[in-house]
Amino acid sequence: MKYRDAFSGYPDGIYLDSLTKGLQPDISIEAQIDFLRWGSILRAGLHRYNRRSVELYEESKTIISDFMGISTDNLAITNEIEGTWYNLIKSVFNAYNGKLFSHIADGHAIQVPVIKSGITTIWIDDDTMYEMIDDLMKEGDLLIISDMSPVEGIKRDIYRLTKSVHSKGGMIAVDYSRSIVQHDNELNMVDFAIIDTSVDMLGPMNTTLLYIRDIIPAYATGFRGIHTIRNKKLDLIDSIDQFEPGIANISGSIAVSKNIEFFNEIGFNNIISHRINLHSILINSLRSSKFRIIALDRKIENSHIFSLNFGAISSHDVSLMLDEISGIMVRSGMGCTHMALQKYNIDDVLQFSTHIYNTTDEIDRFVRELINILAMLKN
To answer: Which among 154, 192, 153, 198 is positioned nearest to 175, based on CA atoms?
Structure first.
């Protein structure tokens, strides 16, 4: 329980759905509330409220960029993740007119913008992606991939992928939403990175971080920021600020910066050690119970994401009974990863994910209750 005290909003029961939404620590929520007490009047101008809000925003961006190991000049704080992916894809395409490479086992936050963009896309998977990059990628092409796969919990080798992509003259964009608290300074190496802070960073909804190594040299979408309008002509922003149009996400940036302070206080090595410990208990318990864990044969020792399939038993039935009988909250269904489940020829999974606020006792109880509920459903 040593980390639980920082989460007064932890729900009754056991919460094992951090992949859908990480719980915010108190320090983050309180910082947002403090800002919103006066920040709700913001719009534009140079009065003291707006000046203070700009100061807070710049302070928050500095904390976030330091954590990511990048310059504030390369960081944008946007709103929802799908729109950020779409704008980035269209920007890169209009600048370089290349092809897209996208992973078939990634989630809808990536796949939906890829499909909606209408750009020629080559779908890859973990078994073939290096060969397809070597054979098909050309200069100006873009690989879009998650750092950690959303179904299997596999942490992909971004260093190797980046070297392979760059050797062909291509670019790589990585979604670090699921594993940012254990990232290993890969951000400076990739061309683009996107992080939905509501997942592994335990931030608020609709706060997304966008890293761009080099500015995209072309007007891309209707969302690019306006510098001035003169004689009926637009003078458009040529910095990364083009991805931050409208009112800045000050409240979200403050919350994320406070979470980074929280993580620093705990220590990232302690967070990872806690994750590995929970993983070890889960894997040993699930193996002994002979559950079908998706992609268990792959390298997932640091993962906090697990997916189970029960054959003819619906994951929705299992999830509902876990909640109603045992007070345990997990995710069920296709997990916004339809093509990944099609690859495994299954219709649904029971997915659970842990974070710093979960305990070993919760994991033990979850496995016991899961075994009992499956026995009830089989009878």
So the answer is: 192
- Please give the single-letter amino acid code of residue 293: I
Contacts of 209 (CB under 8 A, 6+ apart): 64, 68, 75, 76, 77, 78, 193, 194, 195, 197, 256
Identify any residues that bridge with 226 across adjacent strands, giving them in sequence order.
236
Is 26-264 in the same CATH topology as 4-16+267-378?
A: no
Average pLDDT over residues 36-44: 69
Question: For the chain, which residues make up each domain, given as ranges?
Answer: 4-16+267-378, 26-264
User: Where does residue 155 rank: exposed (0-12), middle (13-18), buried (19+ CB within 10 A)?
Assistant: buried
- CATH code of the domain occupying 26-264: 3.40.640.10
What CATH architecture is 4-16+267-378? Answer: Alpha-Beta Complex (3.90)
- Please report where in the chains the tokens 């940036």 appear, as a residue: 253
Q: Decide if 154 contacts 126 (C-beta within 8 A).
A: yes
C-alpha–C-alpha distance, residues 109 and 155, integer Å: 18
What interhelical angle do 268-288 and 360-378 show, nearest 10?
30
The pLDDT score that the predictor gives to residue 197 is 93
Residues 6+ apart with CB under 8 A from 46: none
Which token pair is 226?
Answer: 């306006």
Q: pLDDT tens for residues 48-78?
A: 777 888 889 899 999 999 998 889 989 989 8
C-beta of residue 265 within 8 angstroms of C-beta of residue 27: no
How many CA atoms, within 13 angstroms, populate the side-chain half-sphere of residue 325? 17
- DSSP E strand boundaries for the chain: 14-15, 75-78, 100-103, 121-124, 142-146, 171-175, 192-196, 208-212, 226-230, 233-236, 292-293, 305-309, 328-329, 331-333, 349-353
